[in-house]
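Cross-check.
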Amino acid sequence: MSLNKKTKKFKKIDTGITIILLIGIFIVINFFSYQIFYRWDLTQNKIYSISKVSKRTVGELDDIVNIKAYFSDNLPSQVLSIKQEVADILDEYAAFSNGKIRVEFIDPNDDEDTQRELYMIGIPQLTFEVYEKDKRQLVNGYMGIAISFEDKTEAIPAIKSDTRDLEYQLTTAIKKVITDEIATIGFLTSQGTASLENDISTAKSKLQELYTVREVVLSEEQSSIPPDIDTLIIVGPKEEFSEDELREINAFLVRGGALLGLIDGVDIGEGLTASINKSGINKLFSQYGLTMNRDLVADNRSGMASFTQGFMTFSTNYPYWPKITSDGFNKDNSAVANLENVILPWVSSIDVDSSKIAEEGYVKLAHTTDKGWSVANNFNISPNGSMSPGANQKQYVLAAYFSGMLEDAYPEEEAEEQYPFFGRLALVGDSDFIYEGFIGNTPDNLTFFLNLVDILSFDEDLISIRSKSASSRPIKEGLSDSARAGYRYFNVFGVTIIVMLFGMIRYYMRRRSRFVDEL
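Predicted model, tokenized:
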């Protein structure tokens, strides 16, 4: 037998042994993968694996939590992948729960008792369109989840096709069933504030997923805030507060309540007319050291706005809609650390009085770039008007938060000595950002609002889950046109070219190796 033939024979034997060893290693790894749960998630915010908050929540459970996923077997093919995604997420919850999470998948289509039970807990029967044999058919089915602990049950009525927020829904539901007390949120509905049903219905419905939401009215007939309200939210008041009403809000803070104000320093009317807001609520915030100026802030970094002129509609970058991106948020505060794209239309600036609030309790949440400017009178906010920044370009604070000792704005006159109290409040110089017309195009606006409510009311941990998925990844500012074009062409063609080059190099190396073997 020639030397070449012996060499080839040994190579075949080595190859066979290598294949057998690889198969053996694969079998061992596969066995241990069933015993040890782990998932590699290479995304920046770990959007395809549950967060540390969720792991800690289920890892600290004292008793069994049952999760029942109701998925019909006759679901159309386009939603079958959702069932697998849900199963993967629930497997992760169960793996980190030390046996305290029990997951069960149920097909309720043929069980009338189960269907009645689902109706009672709020999981509806859904209707899907199915195309079979060139015919369009309607099929009924279920895609919901029930989370139960002892005698409490929370439902996720319908799983969305995008499951990115499913972790937030699941962890929130688990926290609700294992927690005895959930905060009550009060929306002030007097003094010309935003309508809960028409203006901010989405924001209200999202809060209701976790909190109890109630309306609060301040008037001569009803001048007190109910004692069960934990956080009071004031959105865009336009009518003047009386001294008694301001005094009642102060008393609410003194007794331990939290206050969130989304206040417009300038009211925008029809035809883009602008006038100073005269609600007087700013007087109260100023007493606590946060003063909202009666100005409008503009910025070179701004959102796109659509305007109608005659019979023509056009869109343009509108400086009076400052856009806050990653570098405009406080990275040390969980409420805003992961936000990427918030637009605050017709926003006013906020000043802090360091003589009234301690520096360690004050947090600047959001600010403009250093190219921002403000207009305090002679408002001309038409897109065709003059928008020159002038000489007052600087960074402006647009949202602030404080937690610490505050001076009583309305101290008791008969008291011999006045004592400060511990207070929590947040102020944003704009209310329009959570209106229906804005949150649809800028989802981070809603996340920003919900996070503010969370840090005032319940659990900061939930913020890290809700903010995991950034809605915008803008290209870094300051790049030249040629650099931007380079990034764009690389994204379109670069990866493809790299893969092709790798394939060609690999093909050349294999041919070269084969040629050497034949020598």
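The mean pLDDT is 83. The chain is about 35% helix and 25% strand. Passed to J.P. for a second look.
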